[in-house]
Design brief:
The chain has 20 helices and 31 strands. It is of the alpha/beta class and about 650 residues long. A seven-stranded mixed β-sheet has the order 5-4-17-16-18-19-20, sandwiched between helices. A five-stranded parallel β-sheet has the order 7-6-8-11-12, sandwiched between helices. A four-stranded antiparallel β-sheet has the order 24-25-27-28. Helix 4 packs across helix 11 (about 280-295).
């Protein structure tokens, strides 16, 4: 395939109608994306002030200064003096157009208009106020991706409380590792949920969670799973009863400083107790408005779905899209409970922006799904992918089997910034295997190990060399900021080091080769794991893989573990085919010293391959926090698999 030619270009009408085109016409007439990007990072105060105005940020007091201490990272101050309320900006529309559509795998469908959403937020805000909730109090959710989760979050934010959520697939200990840090005053819980055709009763987990949270004073129960939470050490309140009791109460919004805490999100926790990452209301709002309006091109006419849970930052990202006035399609359930569940919903709901993960797209391709032939996706105009690098073959699959005329925006960022460093460009082309563009206002560079800027075509560390509004306010329980500084600014002082191993392309796009801490280093040559996975998972017998470095004789050798399709067994012939493909299509340096079959591959609760846990396990070292894994039982296959300086007999 000719990788010099784009897989897709927007037509003239799409370019003319894009929000980004209107933004450029207002602030930098005649510029292309590259020039706008350069301006946005050279003049950050001007750019972010323009975003504030272009998106019409609702505020009470205007900023006295847009950016102060721009040379400090961390330490810059954004929009000093401004006061606003996050929820007020998300509830800016109060009409009868649809705000939320909820679907689940049992066939339930519910709708809420923007007016109905605002009314329910007003009622729940009044309920929280009656509980004594004040600005800075923590309000937590143990809820699926249902409308009640968004309503509860908006009610908390209306009062200036700090929201933090875990999805109900988290076990009790994993929840306590997170929520136990922040001492919540109020918790919203569900009794259960459905997943993959089966009911999941969470009442036992809820009881254990509440017993471990002594600061909780009130519990609000959402009856969703078919059971009922009936006992708690503090007052229990029924969701519907609270809505009825406070019906007719208009939303009221406490006006707060730009950097007032909004969310506590959590690191993966695979190297210890998850870190509580505190995000501010103004920075989150402005970053998301930029990403939704300019990079995703959302308007009131869009219908957006993103397959996520409340335990992943993409849920927070999805919720913020309400500020554009579009319709959110919420789905709770398994993506393949029926072979094409998400695609069925996309067709039935006339979805225009379909958000998913690289893992989902790879699984859909292996399952033989060809929605271009089987589904009416005429409304679809954008596909978003994140969570892990999208392989070049994933790009091929989207344009061949989903839709030819669609913007495929593979995006990358993280919980750390509650946003994107690399994003879509609705007025630019899409090239195979490449993320389109560095996000506006994000001074992204690629550094070598010595902190020198690398030119296009060279792999290195993704860094950001200037401050941006959605940098965390800090870490929870880190009063002197030492853990926060150590996490991002220790490797290159004064520079955000994100931990991704990347490459800038000659066209201004980027390629993500994997996490820096999982990079393989045989013979001193750094190899990104994503490159290896892309080649291995092209084999139809391989469902997924994990590669780690085995320490031996002062060096490392590559060890590849594969999970095969049902009924398949790894034999020498398949090993030989995999090694030959890797040698021919990646490089001899990538060829594994050992290839082994496993029944399952450990993943974090957010669905990412737990490479570091596997690496520790094969060396017989303890895996520090098994509760951070969605399938901790999978680690047992790897524990102590390699003796000191040796590998298994047949590999």
């Amino acid at each position: 395939m000719n990788t010099l030619e784009p897989l897709w270009r927007p037509d003239a009408t799409r370019v003319a109608n894009a929000n980004l085109t209107a933004f450029i016409a207002r602030y930098l007439p005649g510029a292309d994306y590259s020039r706008v990007y350069d301006w946005s990072v050279a003049e950050p105060a001007a750019f972010w002030s323009a975003m504030w105005a272009f998106c019409g940020i609702i505020h009470h007091a205007p900023p006295q200064a847009v950016l102060e201490h721009a040379d400090r990272m961390p330490g810059a101050v954004w929009f000093r003096g401004a006061t606003l309320n996050f929820a007020q900006n998300l509830l800016r529309y109060r009409d009868d157009r649809t705000a939320l559509v909820f679907r689940d795998e049992t066939g339930v469908r519910r709708e809420l208009s923007h007016a109905q959403l605002a009314a329910e937020v007003g009622a729940m805000t009044a309920a929280l106020r009656s509980f004594g909730v004040q600005p800075g109090d923590r309000v937590a959710g143990y809820l699926p991706n249902i409308p009640e989760a968004i309503i509860a979050m908006l009610a908390a934010a209306s009062l200036g409380a700090i929201w933090s959520s875990c999805s109900p697939d988290f076990g009790a200990r994993a929840v306590l590792d997170r929520l136990g840090q922040i001492a919540p005053r109020v918790v919203f819980v569900c009794d259960g949920y459905h997943y993959n055709g089966r009911p999941q009763d969470r009442r036992g987990a809820v009881a254990e969670i509440l017993a471990g949270l002594p600061t909780v004073q009130h519990v609000v129960v959402v009856a969703y799973g078919g059971g009922r939470v009936q006992q708690a050490p503090v007052p229990l309140h029924d969701w519907q009863a609270l809505l009825a009791a406070y019906a007719g109460t208009a939303p009221a919004f406490t006006q707060l400083p730009f950097d007032h805490p909004l969310y506590v999100l959590y690191s993966s926790g695979t190297t210890g107790v998850p870190k509580g990452i505190v995000h501010g209301a103004g920075g989150t709002l402005l970053q998301h408005r930029k990403e939704h309006t300019l990079h995703t091109d959302l308007t009131r006419d869009d219908r957006l779905i993103y397959f996520t849970t409340t335990g992943w930052m993409m849920w927070n990202w999805l919720a913020s899209a309400l500020a554009t006035g579009c319709t959110l399609i919420l789905y709770d359930g398994a993506p393949f409970v029926t072979p094409a569940m998400l695609l069925d919903i996309a067709a039935q709901e006339r979805v225009t922006v379909f958000g998913t993960s690289a893992k989902y797209l790879a699984a859909a391709e292996k399952a033989g799904l060809k929605p271009a032939q089987s589904h009416d996706l005429s409304a679809l105009r954008t596909v978003l992918s994140t969570g892990s690098p999208l392989a070049p073959e994933g790009f091929d699959y989207v344009y061949r089997d989903i839709k030819a005329d669609v913007l495929l925006a593979s995006i990358s960022g993280g919980t750390d910034i509650c946003g994107c460093f690399i994003a879509g460009n609705p007025i630019g082309p899409v090239y195979r295997g490449q993320l389109q563009a560095r996000a506006l206002g994000m001074a992204v560079r690629v550094f070598d190990e010595a902190g020198r800027v690398l030119p296009a075509g060279h792999k290195g560390e993704l860094v950001c060399v200037k401050p941006f509004p959605s940098m965390p306010v800090g870490f929870w329980n880190d009063p002197d900021g030492s853990r926060y500084r150590a996490a991002y600014f220790e490797k290159f002082p004064g520079v955000w080091c994100h931990g991704d191993y990347v490459e800038l392309t000659a066209r201004g796009g980027m390629i993500v080769h994997g996490r820096s801490d999982a990079v393989l280093n045989p013979g001193g040559v750094r190899i990104g794991t994503a490159e290896l996975y892309r080649e291995v998972e092209r084999c139809p017998d391989v469902l997924e893989a994990v590669a780690v470095g085995h320490e031996i004789d002062g060096d490392v050798e590559v060890v590849l573990f594969v999970r095969l399709a049902e009924g398949q067994t790894l034999d020498d012939a398949l090993r030989q085919r995999l090694r030959a493909a890797i040698r021919a299509n990646v490089s001899p340096r990538h060829v594994p010293a050992h290839i082994l079959q496993v029944a399952d591959i450990p993943r974090t609760i957010s669905g990412k391959i737990a490479e570091l846990a596997v690496r520790e396990a094969i060396h017989g070292r303890p895996v520090k926090n098994l509760d951070a894994l969605a399938n901790p039982q999978a680690i047992g296959q790897f524990q102590g698999l390699f003796g000191v300086g040796e590998g298994p007999a047949r590999s």
